[in-house]
Specification:
elongated
């Protein structure tokens, strides 16, 4: 597709293009202890009931409800003969007959003949008998077979992210290995003669390559595998060589080199490599210069060089792509509405993503910006726990207006993060 670099693509359209180009990756079998955060590539079907048999929900005495009903009806305690004791992990060798009881522990199978369990605290046991003071209903304190899981049921469907709860269920179902979607490998390349890497000796006129490490962390947080390609100097041959190395990954992410500068060679190199580009610019701020397409069948993103622009555009395009390739069905961040607390104005031709601090005050979600919103102000992302999504058509916001907020990560929506951003303790959200 022959595109002009002056064309601006709306973000909604760009997201649709990118996600249509992404496909879930293949499956791999991994151990249960390595499965946290991965996405199931198979339906998990129960091969047995859980509980596998009726069992006691309490420490107490397994009894026949009929033995208690008549005596309690006239206000008398019931005395039953204790014929056996059954700890958890054991099975009763005797059946409960009329006038009998079996002492039972939580989790032990219900003995034959019993149809209720009396809590131990509602009894007065002796050496070979038990006095029961309160009546119970039939099936009282009994967990029925299959109460949790029934054999043949699909317990966890394909496409489910594995959390601690799913890991516990998989263990209960004796799944020591599971099929999961592969993690996307993301090759990360920064461009520009002005950049120096962390382990280099550099002059004061150099800029530290923060983008590669910020993007790599974002890749890891989204469940992918970052592959750092280093820095490509402003020379077409060097850029082409570095990009070639990145085509062994599932996704290629470049940072910088996609604007209109004299030394921005990305477009020419992409064309030389046979790239099929879908767009070069987005109608958003920060992050207008952004390229997307395919190079030799691999998804390729050219993100802006400014660190905030790079992170914001990663959130809106690269992260959802990675999640889809990882087998996930929910691709966006959690979104809420909040009350804006400041005044803000913009042109009506760009969708803006303001870095914000979300808090709850008196039961109301409120949001404010982190301060200076320049695309080179990385501290605006450090202070942020959300992005404030301001649509293209909105030209002005005033205190009290309702806005849509993308929560960057539930884990950072905390007292500690808000306190760091504001300099004083924050209300719990």
């Amino acid at each position: 597709m022959d595109l002009k670099q002056s064309d601006l693509t709306p973000l909604d359209e760009a997201q649709k293009i990118v996600l249509e180009a992404a496909r879930p990756l293949g499956l791999e079998k991994i151990g249960l202890l390595d499965a946290l955060g991965r996405v199931l590539g198979e339906d998990i079907v129960a091969t047995r009931d859980n509980p596998p048999w009726d069992n006691s929900a309490m420490d107490g005495f397994a009894v026949r409800w009929e033995d208690l009903k008549q005596e309690h009806a006239i206000g008398k305690p019931v005395v039953l003969k204790v014929i056996e004791e059954v700890p958890a992990g054991k099975v009763a060798t005797k059946a409960v007959g009329p006038g009998q009881a079996i002492r039972i522990m939580t989790g032990a199978p219900i003995p034959k003949g019993a149809n209720a369990v009396v809590k131990v605290e509602e009894t007065e046991p002796s050496a070979d008998a038990v006095r029961i003071f309160k009546p119970v209903e039939p099936r009282a304190n009994i967990r029925p077979q299959g109460e949790d899981v029934k054999r043949g049921d699909c317990i966890i469907p394909k496409g489910t992210p594995i959390r601690p709860a799913e890991a516990g269920m998989l263990a209960m179902l004796a799944k020591s290995f599971v099929l999961v979607y592969q993690r996307p490998r993301v090759a990360i390349l920064s461009t520009g003669d002005e950049l120096a890497d962390l382990d280099e000796r550099f002059n004061e006129d150099k800029i530290i390559n923060s983008n590669s490490y910020g993007i790599a962390a974002a890749v890891q947080e989204a469940g992918g595998i970052p592959i750092l390609l280093g820095i490509a100097p402003d020379h077409p041959a060097a850029l082409k060589e570095k990009i070639g190395h990145g085509l062994n990954a599932d996704i290629l992410v470049l940072s910088g080199g996609v604007s209109m500068g004299d030394y921005d060679f990305t477009k020419a190199v992409f064309k030389e490599l046979g790239a099929e580009m879908n767009f070069w610019k987005l109608a958003i701020r920060p992050g207008q210069p952004l390229a997307f397409g395919k190079i030799q069948g691999k998804l390729a993103f050219g993100l802006p060089g400014n660190p905030v622009s790079s992170m914001v555009t990663f959130e809106q395009l690269v992260r959802p792509t990675m999640l889809k390739m990882s087998g996930r069905r929910t691709l966006g961040r959690p979104v809420v509405e909040a009350v804006f607390q400041e005044t803000f104005s913009k042109r009506a031709d760009r969708r803006h993503f303001l870095r914000g601090v979300l808090s709850r005050e008196g039961g109301v979600l409120k949001v404010r910006t982190t301060g200076d919103q320049g695309s080179g102000i990385l501290t605006s992302m450090v202070k942020a726990n959300c992005l404030i999504d301001v649509p293209e058509h909105v030209e002005r916001l005033t205190p009290g207006d309702r806005v849509t907020v993308q929560i960057l990560a539930p884990g950072i929506w905390s007292n500690e993060h808000q306190a760091a951003a504001t300099g004083h303790p924050a209300d719990c959200c």
